Amino acid sequence: MSARSRLGVVLAAVSALTVVLVPSAAAHPAPAVPRTAVLDGARLQQTKLRLDHGDPQLRRALRNLTTRADNWLHQGPWTVVDKPKPAPGGDVHDYLSQAPYWWPTTAPTADNPWGCPYVQRDGQRNPEVDTGTDRQDVEKVFDSTYDLALAWYYTGDKRYARKADQVLRTWFLDPGTRMNPNLNHAQFIPCKYDGRAIGIIDFSQSYTSVLDAVAILGTGAPGWTKTDRAAMAGWNSDFLGWLRNSAFGKEEGAAANNHGTFYDMELAALAYATGDKALARRTVLDARAKRIDAQIAGDGSQPQELARTRSWHYSTFDLVAYTRLAAIGRHLGVNLWTYQGPDGQGLLKAVDYLLPTATGAAAWPYPELEFHRYAASDVVHAAADAGDASAKAAVPKLETPPGGDLWALRPAAEQLDSIAG
């Protein structure tokens, strides 16, 4: 065979290979980039493309995610209007929750149906708070919309999008079932307070999941209409106004522990999601001196959280807020991970403080009523992604949370153990 003939054979083979490959690539056009507040939309897009091309590790994680999403398909929707009694004031559309660590001191009677007065038992959850209020339902709203939106984005299965649409419309938008955009009656204490500023954490701990779910659905989810998007943006704007201007909002913003950190994170996320990037950026920048300097010690410990009866839970919990705040800052040109306070305090040092226990190398030396080593897994992932060599080395030694490690699909820290308020 001549050199020219051999060249022709090679070119024909290359051409055939191209015919095989090009349609495969065309079958997986680049998905839209969600304008998420905490999650990195561009990273979600790249993860989606890797899934479309059969990445085996991501496929395993996707099975865990779709298992969670499948469980939501036959639950809900939920609404604030179906609780047995309305919130104080009588408006069934007002959100109501009960302080989790407060307990009755006497047996209920006809004259004292609650068993008042109530006393605090820090870290011990009163089971009555999970009945008769909106707390359990709102957590299902947050969790389900997040799981369902992500599952739709990665699989294209319309069932997930339609269920997320239904949950969101019922809780936030439909006139007959919607929640008023305030938390005036969150974490009330019977016979003592009709609501408390501290109750804002019912939303601030997880509502950013809804903001990101809405952004994901906004990339083209079937059924999530332009009208829905506008109405949800209006609800968020109203809620942001209440959070900034109400007495409860101002009081929570002044808190010097995880409540203050979560407040700032929620404020920044809502501001970013509603288009007020200046407020979002200012909030993230202010968190350096206001939160990191004041709430993290030079050795990386968090003294206010170590003082709790569930010190491991609250140390990881506070870092969920910090790592999500850092993620919001990433969209705004602020790198909280590299910041160091006057005593050397910073987010990386705070995560590193947890690593001996997170990896199982050492016992946690502080009080903890309900220890779960996996509670730290997501914040360690976040620090590893931010470039912390110690955290990167720790990742293979982390305890897998119930339901599997979903970090590769939703790289934003969640509180993986129970959230008690």
What does this 3D model show about the protein?
The protein is mainly α. It contains 16 helices and 2 strands. It has helices at 3-26, 41-52, 56-72, 135-155, 158-173, 201-204, 207-217, 226-245, 247-253, 258-273, 277-295, 303-306, 311-331, 347-358, 377-385, 389-394, and strands at 102-104, 118-120. Strands 1-2 form a two-stranded antiparallel sheet. The longest helix has 24 residues, at 3-26. The radius of gyration is 24 Å and the shape is globular. The N and C termini lie far apart (79 Å).
The secondary-structure element order is: HHHEEHHHHHHHHHHHHH
**Mean pLDDT, all residues:** 92
Label the structural class: mainly alpha
End-to-end CA span? 79 Å
